[in-house]
Amino acid sequence: MKNLLYIGNKLSDHGYTSTSIETLGTFLEAEGFTVYYASSKKSKFFRLLEMIIMTITYAKKVDYVLIDTYSTKNFWYAFIVSQLCRILKVKYIPKLHGGDLPNRIVRSKFFSGMLFKHAYINIAPSYYLYEAFKENGYGNLKYIPNTIELTLYPQSVKTFTVPKLLWVRSFAKIYNPLMAVKVFIQIKQKFPEAQLCMIGPKKDDSFEKTVRFAKKHKVAVSFTGKLSKEEWIAVSKDFNVFINTTHFDNTPISVIEAMALGLPVVSTKVGGIPFLLQHEENALLVADNDVNAMVQQIERLFEDEKLAETITENAKKTVRNFDWEVVKNDWIDLLK
Q1: In this predicted model, what pLDDT tens digit does every residue of 36-92 receive, in sequence order?
Q2: How far apart are CA 138 and CA 161, in angstroms?
Q3: CA distances from 59 to 46, 197, 264 (A)
Q4: Which DSSP letter does residue 61 get?
Q5: Assessment of whether the complete model's pTM goes beyond 0.85
Q6: What is the pLDDT of residue 73?
Q7: Does the structural domain 3-144 have CATH classification 3.40.50.2000?
Q8: Which part of the chain is the Glycosyl transferase family domain (predicted)?
């Protein structure tokens, strides 16, 4: 088997949500690949420093360098490591993330060209990113979806009498957590016994703003903080609707996980979401930040039991394509 160096933000030990470097890396190790990682340093400076040192150290010892590539400040980690790989003559593979990456490749066209055009291949985990990169002249592309291990997601019977809303994401402006509480306030007007649970770590001041907003409007929201995958899956058994309120997105694992658990998804129609979810087929979709529309779509699930059943069953069929037992063949073929 091959040796790999995986560059990304391995920060779950610091209270952040696990990312691809931890999930995909673990899957690859289970298939017999030797995987080295950088970095788990909390400080951005020391994280970048370790990424550089590890790349120099392992350039002659690995077959490929996998690089989680985002659209925000972390874009520059990927850029610097990629150029180092070029100097050291080691093949590198950017794994594309982030709903705003299509804007980044236009906004930073020169640097994006240096990063992506010289890659061994660019991995797009959604057709949204695949099409965006293709339209901007990048031909060295391969679609390999984000993946989960379906056996870890037990089904539970859902009843649709009272809305019990579940939100799972980092508290960051880009994911618009405030919208979840605004939706909940309206839902409670019709369903006084409704519940909202918001699971995820703090990433910026969105958490404090969301908590203050809930208190101001006197609605009881359960804020759990970060939970392990096993913990939030256990919590999900007591809820019957998953809401996704993000401003930008790619193909969020949390949404795929919710679908696997049998939770009907009501989501904003942004970024890569329409490539994953189809309105009234495997989810219900609304415009970005449209609180009234999301309330209406949630209420439909409690007025039309057949609709909830259809969406849930179609969602289960959709997520079969994201099971590691299916996806792993693409990674093994590529890396061998």
Answers
A1: 999 999 999 999 999 999 999 999 999 999 999 998 888 999 999 999 999 999 999
A2: 49
A3: 19, 45, 45
A4: T
A5: yes
A6: 87
A7: yes
A8: 163-317
